[in-house]
């Protein structure tokens, strides 16, 4: 394993409230999650990313916090959380938590105090304007659900700023007290034993918002400060950030340009996400070839976090209108499957018509791309969505553990569940559940288990460098390679439906007994690299050679 744990991690994200309910109140909890750690260890994940765990009125699924120094009582106690960290650590699993400090809930005592009087010590912790700001109707993140970013507060007799919903007032990071408090929050959780943070909405955290200026300046130095602080408190802690910005802005989030990665360690690769989905929709590797070619050079220690699905919509806003329409036509044909004029609120299995070959292909592609893979709970068994639920809730249904009532998620009365389980159609828990799949060596779960194990023997993917193999390929086929001190892995993925033969003979001089380590079927001896067979939607991960580090 390389020097930095996060480079070769497999991250699994989940929301405690929909994972496993231990006390039968209908809401998942920490003890429930603890009882499923063995399952996660078996799957092979090495790091959990927990969605917000703090007390919250839950109007944005926990992304509206009322107390940064506690866990939501629905989930258990701080004691339970410390126990979870211990139990996870015993299994070699690290835990990172969502850090949502761009804003608080409007019910947070800081905001309650701030709005109550101009003399409140917390008044300047938020952003106010006495006049109606000219850009009041600009910069909304949730079009259709939000129509302004400045809202008049009658108690405060002033306008306050909120990049997201109006119940999420933005904190004022130009206030040194706010900065100090954010550092204190991070220290608290590091001290308790988390391995880092998934930092929510980073481009907005560093915005020095000025009323009337929709292009307010950003203070990148604040990220440098946070990084220094975190690294001093815990040397191996990691920052994984959400920064869905233009590609040319990305490097600034990793470092200050001096060549050292002195800001965020890992950024979600939103660019790759959109292109992966486009490539799948078109049966064409071109968008991925572009992604590999256009990847900005990262400073030492900088790393991408790859994903296919997360807890939000698939954001297609960085595709052209034509590309977006193509993806919609393939994967979100009904208006009800789309959201915010830019995305799709579906899980991957239903998007791919529950076609096992395509699901494997898609995840084999993601996990072979440069970076650290992030997997969302339930994807490993091919869960579906519930489009009758509002907005992003469609993809936030309870984990499907078994054939038992409520999918084995909870023993509560079904009406009391935090969200209904999927109990109809081909994605119902009677068809898709952990119990069935963990006892079936041919299940999607078993495939994920094998694929993740294979990754353990291919550290080049996480720690090495990945490039497109630019030789002539049959239509639909992507060939890429990952090189590192441990050797070279070569990957061929067929996004098309036709069986093909791939010519990789240009790699012969480097090959040292090449062999398949993962493939969609038994292809027999690999033999000559000049005629590598590949079925429609097939893939082969080939170890080309081992390096001196073995
Ligand atoms: C991030 C989260 C999203 C949340 C928003 C506001 O984008 O991923 O789920 O609604 O921040 O905190």
Automatic annotation (TrEMBL):
Domain of life: Bacteria
Any GO BP annotation: carbohydrate metabolic process
InterPro entries membership: GH, GH13_cat_dom, O16G_dom_2, SupH-like_C
Pfam families per UniProt: Alpha-amylase, SupH-like_C
Domain Glycosyl hydrolase family 13 catalytic as annotated: residue spans: 13-416
Listed Gene3D superfamilies: Glycosidases, Oligo-1,6-glucosidase, Domain 2
Protein name: Alpha-amylase family protein
Protein's organism: Micromonospora profundi
């Amino acid at each position: 394993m390389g020097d930095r744990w996060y480079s070769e991690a497999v991250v699994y994200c989940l929301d405690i409230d929909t994972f496993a309910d231990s006390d039968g109140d209908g809401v998942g909890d920490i003890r429930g999650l603890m009882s499923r750690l063995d399952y996660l260890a078996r799957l092979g994940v090495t790091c959990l990313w927990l969605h917000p765990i703090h007390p919250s009125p839950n109007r944005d699924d926990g992304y509206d916090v009322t107390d940064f120094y506690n866990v939501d009582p629905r989930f258990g106690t701080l004691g339970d959380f410390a126990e979870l960290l211990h139990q996870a650590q015993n299994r070699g699993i690290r835990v990172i938590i969502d850090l949502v400090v761009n804003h608080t809930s409007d019910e947070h005592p800081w905001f309650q105090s701030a709005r109550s009087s101009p003399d409140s010590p917390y008044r300047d912790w938020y952003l106010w304007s006495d006049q109606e700001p000219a850009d009041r109707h600009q910069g909304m993140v949730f079009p259709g659900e939000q129509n302004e970013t400045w809202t008049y507060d009658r108690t405060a007799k002033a306008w306050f700023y909120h990049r997201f919903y109006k119940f999420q007032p933005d904190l004022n990071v130009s206030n040194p007290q706010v900065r100090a408090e954010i550092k204190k929050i991070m220290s608290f959780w590091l001290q308790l034993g988390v391995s880092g943070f998934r930092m929510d909405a980073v481009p907005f955290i560093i915005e020095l918002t000025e009323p009337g200026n929709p292009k307010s300046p950003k203070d990148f130095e604040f990220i440098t400060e946070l990084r220094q602080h975190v690294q001093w408190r815990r040397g191996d802690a990691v920052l994984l950030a959400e920064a869905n910005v233009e590609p040319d802005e990305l490097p600034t989030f990793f470092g200050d340009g001096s060549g050292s990665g002195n800001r965020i360690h890992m950024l979600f690769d939103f660019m790759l996400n959109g292109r992966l989905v486009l490539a799948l929709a078109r049966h064409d590797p071109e968008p991925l070839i572009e992604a590999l070619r256009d990847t900005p050079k990262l400073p030492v220690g900088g790393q991408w976090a790859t994903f296919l699905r997360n807890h939000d919509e698939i954001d297609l806003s960085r595709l052209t209108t034509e590309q977006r329409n193509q993806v919609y036509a393939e994967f979100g044909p009904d208006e009800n499957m789309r959201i915010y004029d830019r995305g799709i609120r579906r899980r991957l299995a239903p998007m791919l018509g529950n076609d096992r070959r395509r699901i494997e292909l898609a995840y084999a592609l993601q996990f072979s791309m440069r970076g650290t893979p992030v997997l969302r709970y339930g994807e490993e068994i091919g869960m579906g969505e519930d489009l009758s639920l509002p907005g992003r809730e469609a993809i936030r249904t309870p984990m499907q553990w078994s054939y038992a009532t409520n999918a084995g998620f909870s023993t509560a009365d079904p009406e009391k569940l935090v969200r209904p389980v999927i109990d109809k159609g081909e994605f119902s828990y009677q068809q898709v559940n952990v119990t069935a799949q963990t006892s079936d060596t041919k299940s999607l779960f078993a495939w994920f288990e094998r694929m993740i194990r294979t990754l353990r023997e291919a550290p080049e993917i996480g720690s090495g460098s990945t490039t497109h193999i630019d030789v002539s390929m049959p239509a639909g086929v992507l060939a890429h390679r990952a090189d590192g001190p441990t050797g070279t892995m070569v990957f061929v993925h067929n996004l098309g439906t036709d069986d093909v033969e791939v010519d990789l003979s240009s790699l012969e001089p480097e090959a040292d007994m090449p062999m398949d380590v993962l493939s969609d079927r038994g292809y027999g001896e690999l033999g000559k690299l000049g005629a590598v067979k590949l079925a429609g939607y097939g893939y082969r991960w080939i170890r080309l050679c081992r390096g001196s580090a073995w």
